[in-house]
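Team,

Forwarding the record for the chain on the shared tracking sheet. I've put the sequence and predicted structure together so nobody has to dig through attachments.
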Amino acid sequence: MKAIVIHGAKDLRIEEHPIGTLGPGQVDIAIEAGGICGSDLHYYNHGGFGAIRLREPMILGHEVAGTIKRLGAGVSRLGVGDRVVVSPSRPCNVCDYCLVGQQNHCLNMRFYGSAMPMPHIQGAFRQSLIADEWQCHKVADGVSINEAAFAEPFAVTLHAVARAGSLLGKRVLVTGCGPIGALAIIAARAHGAREIVVTDVMDAVLEKARTIGADRTINVLMDRDALSVYAANKGYFDVHFEASGNGQAVRSGLEVLKPRSVLVQLGLGGDVSIPQNMVVAKEIEMKGTFRFHEEFGLAVDLINAGRVDMKPLLTGIYGIDEAIAAFEAAGDRSKSMKVQLSF
């Protein structure tokens, strides 16, 4: 089979790899759609991110869906021909964190396409993927395989919503409208947000934000003062989803959050300085959010039921042999929201 393998920064290759051995309780999936994630782009452009660096060639990818072509012994819930979306979250379920229901912090996590451990965890951008039955969620009739492949990044934002607490009737600020910021808009709207204001520095992504449910969008590069009006009377917003990883976005959010509100940090960036006195005086809760686990099933259910619409976010589909062009397109925020590969 063909697989998309990263060897170093800007060194992406299409290679032949053997199809894995099918074991008991496993299924063999013909992968048909795979979304390029921000972490995939970091490996492609920089050979890693932060302290995480490539130390050996690694198959990329973790946002995948496809059709089952073979069943291992003991598989009973799925059948050949079923379309499935695959959760890349594979915790050990025996470490201290798994045993208290924090599988996203598993000490022995085998998350597809991750260079954190050594040897690296090989990813799912391949024509054939052997997966455990429990990882697979059926795709409903009428839902395209490309829509289904949004389940993983959508689950990331559903976990962020869980970290924030109830959004029913809340006013929400989203800073940064890349794929995760956009999906945060959809997740917030699905969970009863009263008002959603979105900021970014590019008009193209802000136009997309309005399409998927933002009440107001602000280009903070063109109008730096537009957000500041929300700072009156100690703030306006109840929840801030920070998806840009930009230190200024964190500070701006703290200024417009009302007392006893919540800032949930989704975006990855470098070290930032925080106005500590403001956090203390307004009793703001600052929370991180990392991956997901049980939210993956909810993401699939919401997509299957048609309660959320992923189609506006899909801006390009490239064949596996066009992988380099796909990664270049995915890295161009002026043209792309979510780029997927076809296998």
